[in-house]
Amino acid sequence: MAHIVVLGAGLGGSIMAYELADEISKSDKITVISKDPKYHFVPSNPWVAVGWRDRK
Ligand SMILES: Cc1cc2nc3c(=O)[nH]c(=O)nc-3n(C[C@H](O)[C@H](O)[C@H](O)COP(=O)(O)OP(=O)(O)OC[C@H]3O[C@@H](n4cnc5c(N)ncnc54)[C@H](O)[C@@H]3O)c2cc1C
Questions:
Q1: For 18-53, what is each residue's pLDDT tens digit?
Q2: Number of domains comprising the chain
Q3: What are the beta bridge partners of residue 37?
Q4: Domain presence at residue 35
Q5: Best probe residue, ligand 1, of 18, 42, 53 (max atoms within 8 Å of C-beta)
Q6: Which residue puts its alpha carbon closest to atom 27 of ligand 1?
Q7: Among 18, 28, 29, 36, which is disulfide-ready with 2 (CB 3.0 to 4.6 Å)?
Q8: What pLDDT does residue 34 have?
Q9: Range of the domain at 37
């Protein structure tokens, strides 16, 4: 059994975790660690600033 820890849950970490999930066996485990309680899609942040999207 492997326990894989992904540090950072931004674009890179989130994509890595989903890609790994397809490769591991059922007994393996993935933990994704982030310092934020919410996921931020960074490229969309300017859209919030100019009112094209709301924060949620
Ligand atoms: C305004 C803006 C617009 C952009 N537009 C585009 C675009 O249109 N197309 C494109 O391809 N790219 C775009 N980018 C670039 C893209 O967003 C970045 O290249 C990408 O987010 C980098 O991914 P990352 O996983 O390396 O970092 P991030 O997505 O920043 O993720 C890093 C993660 O690590 C976490 N973290 C940091 N320190 C700690 C810690 N000590 N402990 C735990 N967690 C921690 C953070 O909370 C964050 O969740 C844009 C960037 C910006 C700023």
A1: 999 999 999 999 999 999 898 888 889 999 999 999
A2: 1
A3: none
A4: yes
A5: 42
A6: 10
A7: 28
A8: 95
A9: 3-49
